[in-house]
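Quick log. Single chain, no ligands specified.
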Amino acid sequence: MSYGKIFTVKIHPPPRAKVTHFNLKRLGYTFYDESFDVSFWGIFTLSLIVGVLGGIYGIGGGSIIAPFFITFFGLPVYTVAGAALMGTFVTSVAGVVFYHAIAEWGGLERNFSCLRVTNHTCHDG
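-> predicted structure:
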């Protein structure tokens, strides 16, 4: 009795970005055997501006910075998307930890618990 052909699947390890050089002038890396080289100070300046604007307006920096990396630095989407997602994840976790830490100090914990239970603001009294 024949059950047909047996197929073998070769699983390749996931691709990894490899930093080729990093100094105060340039940042270079390879991914999928392609090399990319960008200005360190350009990325630093853009990240600083996006961080300030994102903090002021309360929007995610990854949604702002990704199009700039693609348009002005010429980086491919498949490298920028992962970096933007990782940056968003790290800042989200840091925000949760920070707000949890400051909630212990002031009346924030009391106010948040009142909002959760009664669905309206609490009054001092």
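DSSP finds four helices and three strands in the chain.
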